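Exercise 7. Given the components listed, write out the predicted structure of the assembled complex. Treat all entries as one system.
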Amino acid sequence: DIQMTQSPSILSASVGDRVTITCRASQSINSWLAWYQQKPGKAPKLLISKASSLESGVPSRFSGSGSGTEFTLTISSLQPDDFASYHCQQYRINPWAFGQGTRVEIK
Amino acid sequence: QLQLQESGPGLVKPSETLSLTCTVSGGSISSDGFYWDWIRQPPGKGLEWIGSIYHRGVTYYNPSIESRVSISVDTSKNQFSLRLTSVTAADTAVYYCALTPAAPRGRFDYWGQGTLVAVSS
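Answer.
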């Protein structure tokens, strides 16, 4: 099975900061990676698919990059609505697997 | 607008069977091109994919719990269901139903709101 590892687990930042979250796969997943945003008590929401393809309605301050085993999610200028948890997920090989999540909190 | 809604008991006793149903509205569960999935999240932890089903009955399960899980579909009610047998406290989690496109499969485009199931005597 493919293992997904995110870092950091917790990220403290301020409004306006540029933040980057890293996700590593235990073997190559090409670009079959999704990023989700999850707010407390809510279901995850798909932000990015195929490593870098922004879903409709997602603000352009979000971007994704990477291929193979190393991926990043970047928020160019953190907004109050962005304080949440973020999860990466590989969908190259079944069983689909998620990272453990990164919580972005107010500094 | 497609919507998914989980329903079922919020409390299950250890060694018993957890049963949940996901009702789909705003679209047909019989549509070609979609799989219907279950995902769970223990309190304070990450997400775990449980399994998925196609409306024709084809299923895929996570090997980590495959021996205890079954997913079925009822196209007449536009629902699909999860059964997890011999539950323990480790099965306490928020359970989500979700939709994934058939190609590429495995990306979760729509989610239900989730339902918390606690395993306790």
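Discussion: Residues 11 and 99 of chain A are 15 Å apart (CA to CA). The interface with chain B takes residues 1, 32, 34, 36, 42-46, 49-50, 87, 89-92, 94-101 of chain A (CB under 8 Å).
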